[in-house]
Structure formats: structure tokens, C-alpha cells
Amino acid sequence: MKLGLLTGGDEQATVSGFAIDHRKVASGTVFGAFAGSKVNGEDYIAAAVKAGAIAVVARPEARVEGAVHIADANPRRAFAGLAARFFAPFPAVAVAVTGTNGKTSCVEMTRQLWRMAGFHAASIGTLGVTTGDDRVSTGLTTPDVVTFLSNTAGLAREGVSHVAFEASSHGLEQYRTEGLPVRAAGFTNLSRDHLDYHGTMAAYFEAKMRLFSEVVSADGAAVVWADDPLSAQVMEIARARGVRVLSVGTQGETLKLVSRDPTLLGQGLAIMAEGRTFEINLPLIGAYQAANAMVSAGLVIATGGDVAATLASLARLQPVRGRLERAVIARSGAPVYVDYAHTPDALEAAIAALAPHAKGRLIVVFGAGGDRDQGKRAAMGAIAAALADVVIVTDDNPRGEDAATIRAMVLEGAPGATEIGSRREAIGAAIALSGPEDIVLVAGKGHEQGQIVGDLVLPFDDVSVAREMAA
Ligand SMILES: CC(=O)N[C@H]1[C@@H](OP(=O)(O)OP(=O)(O)OC[C@H]2O[C@@H](n3ccc(=O)[nH]c3=O)[C@H](O)[C@@H]2O)O[C@H](CO)[C@@H](O)[C@@H]1O[C@H](C)C(=O)N[C@@H](C)C(=O)N[C@H](CCC(=O)O)C(=O)O
Ligand SMILES: Nc1ncnc2c1ncn2[C@@H]1O[C@H](COP(=O)(O)OP(=O)(O)OP(=O)(O)O)[C@@H](O)[C@H]1O
Ligand SMILES: N[C@H](CCC[C@H](N)C(=O)O)C(=O)O
Ligand SMILES: [Mg+2]
């Protein structure tokens, strides 16, 4: 592609690629120079040009010498738009999901539902890039914009026609998932998380709302979980742009959850849609999984799926890795579940999902991540203390912080809890004290394969450790 095609000028130089890190610039690259949270990308413009950048997308006031300056007051957005034109085409149907909890579950369930409808589908998010046959990790929930657009275009080349991706608040704020047409946007819920980055709940909500106010196509759809205190505002923001709204939940209009009855291995749902009531046996436990299944069905319906067929497919959903995953049954007879709950709201949802299944005690093992929102720590402690019978506070990715200090902050909310720093020992202790009627919940890491301590990632997998400790 000639550079002029992107700038609207007549530059004949050939664009070879896009980069936002000057260390990835090669001859013919378009470099995006953005102010970040650690450094200012504009400081690397000269180095990028030296490395072969032929154009630099940056603010008008940035200094660019020796390459075309594509000036824009919002360089991240401009860069995403140009990169998308370079990497296109993308899968014909792309949908995005935002919300504090449930994004990964929804993109994965949406992918499964599309596949059951016969489409070649993929999902992109915390679990990586997942197609029917393959899963490749990207490291972040929302990869950087170049990785995201090139991966998504790569999926189209492999024949993927439908893709569902997570739009995290960081990703939305940094324009990491822009440029391609988004046919439908999903909202799951909003609760406390990431205040270290966004500062206030209002700023956090606003970052997420860009998905509805700017990113989703104006002729697209918004699929909104209707039972959240902020759902009405989300619908209003979507409608203000003429975006069609599909609401789902007990308050939903498109898919109305009429009843939910937990069974041994799942739950029976009665869902009203198009004036009829559909009875579905969802093979997953917990109110939160029913909510995510309904948002996912909404996304499939919003992009052309048949209502009856889509709802019928819910009965064939496979569990999502690390989300209420039953790792093992302890010798005591207690099942041990692993769940990715790492916010107060998620911990509450995970405990609430398991509580109806525990005849005896609910034993929970969890911690809180370092270099992340500190305010959620005591809140998580308080929820565990209020809702579980036995609470063991342990480590969860201390990163650059002192692990004991993080545990102390969690324990402020759960004064009676037991403290065991080593996650392996904590899981072992929970299993050792379990009885036949009890349930053990190991929360916070879900699918993760490592414990991040300082700059080291030590191999760690809650599911395998639980199996080892139960043996
Ligand atoms: C706080 C945050 O979101 N940081 C991300 C962000 O960095 P930034 O733009 O602030 O970058 P910066 O380091 O200040 O650098 C500014 C610019 O200079 C460039 N640079 C920098 C150094 C250099 O030598 N040369 C150079 O060109 C950088 O590429 C960047 O464009 O953009 C980078 C590139 O895309 C990301 O790698 C980085 O993620 C860091 C590693 C991270 O930990 N992010 C987490 C918090 C995150 O994003 N999590 C969310 C939410 C999870 C969820 O709830 O699901 C996620 O989507 O994963
Ligand atoms: N709809 C929901 N309502 C409340 N809690 C939920 C919901 N969905 C998931 N959770 C909780 O949040 C955890 C993480 O779920 P999931 O990975 O789907 O969310 P996410 O939004 O992708 O998280 P992340 O921000 O880390 O990417 C689950 O393990 C569960 O404990
Ligand atoms: N996307 C989330 C994941 C948190 C997972 C938890 N195990 C932790 O490390 O805090 C984050 O990066 O904040
Ligand atoms: Mg996720």
C-alpha cells in the first residue's frame, strides 16, 4: 500500500507495517507516537525515523523530521483508523464486550454459539485468540492495537467470518480495538476495579461507554444486561446514537429471564422471547454464568442469529476455562472449584454460585493482585468474611508489591480469616480441612499459568495444584 493512500496525499513510498514501539520499527513502518502512563512515545520519534519510519502519527505539536507527520489531536484514534485500512479485511461480523466481569466468558460463549450455528468463529481476550482448533495467548486482555488488528485480519485470512473480542477499559481508553466495524457491543455489568488506572468510578464508566458512544457502528446493536444499576444509562447512551438496543436479564425485553432453578450440574432457565417461553437446561452453574450466556445469546441474535435456535444451543455450551471450573474432588468428597473472581463483585458472584450446592461449609482461598487497585482488597476480604464459612487469605500475583502488605490489606476486611502466604500451602490447607459436605473455592487466578512475583513469573496453575494437593 502506498503511503499516499493513507494520508490523502501523493506519497509513493510503500507502507510495510505499523508500530507503536520504536523498537519494532523497520523500513517503511508508520510509527504511532503516543503519550503513555510511563513514558512519552514522542520522545522516540527521531529513533523511529532513524530505524526507517516513513510516517509518524502524532499530535500537531510533536516534532517530526525526516518522515511525513500525520498530525491529529487524538493520535491514538487516528493511528487505529489508518492501521485498520492497512490490515483490512477483517471477519465480516465483529462484536465487542465490555463490563467489569464476564467479558471473557461472553466472548467465549458467543464464539461457541456461532460455531454451533455453523460459522467459522473466533474470540480474542484474556484467554488469548481462540479459534475452534487453537488458542494462542497474547498476554493482555486487549492486546495493543497493532497486534489486535493484525491478529483479527489474520483470522479473516484463515476463513473466520465471526469474531467476538473483549474491550477492556484500558483498551478502550487507549484505542487498542478501534478501526474495524463493530456490529454489536455487549455490556455485562460495572463494579469496582482498576481505580488505580482510572481514578474514579465515573472515569472508569466513561472509558467503557466509548464502546457505545463511539466504537460500535451507528447501524449496529447494543446488547445490554438489564439488571445492573447502570444498565439504563448504557441503553440511553446507545439510543442517543440511534444504536438498536437489545436488553437481556430479568428486566430484559429481548430476552427476559423468567425463572432460574439450580440443578445438580447446571440450571434450568425459562426465557421469554418473541412472546414465547423457552425452557433451557444450561449445563453451567451460577447466576453469573446464566447472565453471561444470555448476553452471548443476545450478541448472536443481534448479528442475525435465529432466536429459537440460539436459545436451544445454550444447552450445549461448554464450560469456560477457569470460570467455576471443577478442578478435582478431594478425598474428603468436597469438590474444589477454581474461579477467576478478582474483584469484590466477582467474588460475591462466585460464592453465590456455589453456596446453593454446599450442604456443609464453603471454604474460600483467595488474595489480591499487586500493582492494581488497592481499594478493592478490604472489600474482597469483607465479602468473603460475610458469605463464606472459612476464609484463607493468600497471595495472587504480588508483582512489585510486598505480598504480606497486600494480605494485610485484604485481612482488614476479614479479621477472622487465616493467613497463609504460599498459595500452594493455602490450597492444601483448604483441602485438608474440608469435609464431605463442604465446597472449596480457589478464587482469583482462574486459567492463569503463573504467579507473578517481582519481575518473575513462577509457574503456577490453581487447577493442577488443587489436584496435586487432593491426591
Ligand atoms: C497501564 C497500561 O495499560 N499500559 C499499557 C500501555 O502502555 P502506555 O501507552 O501507557 O505505554 P508507555 O509504556 O507509557 O509508553 C508510551 C508509548 O511509548 C512507546 N515506547 C515506549 C518505550 C520505548 O522504548 N519506545 C516506545 O516507542 C510505547 O510503545 C507506547 O506506545 O500500552 C502498552 C502497549 O499496548 C501496554 O503493553 C501497556 O500494558 C501494561 C503492560 C499493562 O500491564 N496493562 C494492563 C494494566 C492492562 O492493560 N490491563 C487491561 C485490563 C485487564 C482486564 O480487566 O481485563 C487489559 O486489557 O489487559
Ligand atoms: N456476569 C457476571 N456477574 C458477576 N460476576 C461475574 C460475571 N461474569 C463473571 N463474573 C466473575 O468474574 C470472574 C471473571 O470472569 P471473566 O473472565 O468472564 O470476566 P472478565 O470481564 O473477562 O475479567 P477481566 O477483566 O479479568 O478480563 C469470573 O470468574 C466470576 O467470578
Ligand atoms: N485483568 C486483570 C486480571 C487480574 C487477575 C488477578 N489474578 C490479579 O493478578 O490481580 C488485571 O490485570 O487487573
Ligand atoms: Mg477477561
UniProtKB/TrEMBL annotation:
Q: What GO molecular function terms would the record report? A: UDP-N-acetylmuramoylalanyl-D-glutamate-2,6-diaminopimelate ligase activity
Pfam families from the UniProt entry: Mur_ligase (PF01225), Mur_ligase_C (PF02875), Mur_ligase_M (PF08245)
* Places the protein is found: Cytoplasm
UniProt binding sites for ATP: 99-105
Q: What residues bear N6-carboxylysine in this entry?
A: 208
| Residue span, Mur ligase C-terminal domain | 322-446
Instruction: Name the predominant localization.
Output: cytoplasm
Record field: catalytic activity: UDP-N-acetyl-alpha-D-muramoyl-L-alanyl-D-glutamate + meso-2,6-diaminopimelate + ATP = UDP-N-acetyl-alpha-D-muramoyl-L-alanyl-gamma-D-glutamyl-meso-2,6-diaminopimelate + ADP + phosphate + H(+)
Q: Residue ranges for motif Meso-diaminopimelate recognition motif?
A: 396-399
> What pathway is this protein a component of?
Cell wall biogenesis; peptidoglycan biosynthesis
Keyword presence, Aminoacyl-tRNA synthetase: no
Instruction: Name the domain of life.
Output: Bacteria
Q: Which residue range or ranges hold the Mur ligase central domain? A: 97-299
InterPro entries, sorted: Mur-like_cat_sf (IPR036565), Mur_ligase_C (IPR004101), Mur_ligase_C_dom_sf (IPR036615), Mur_ligase_cen (IPR013221), Mur_ligase_N (IPR000713), MurE/MurF_N (IPR035911), UDP-N-AcMur-Glu-dNH2Pim_ligase (IPR005761)
Q: What is known about its processing and modification?
A: Carboxylation is probably crucial for Mg(2+) binding and, consequently, for the gamma-phosphate positioning of ATP.
**What family does this chain come from, according to its entry?**
Belongs to the MurCDEF family. MurE subfamily.
Report what the protein is called: UDP-N-acetylmuramoyl-L-alanyl-D-glutamate--2,6-diaminopimelate ligase
Q: Which organism is it from?
A: Sphingomonas qilianensis
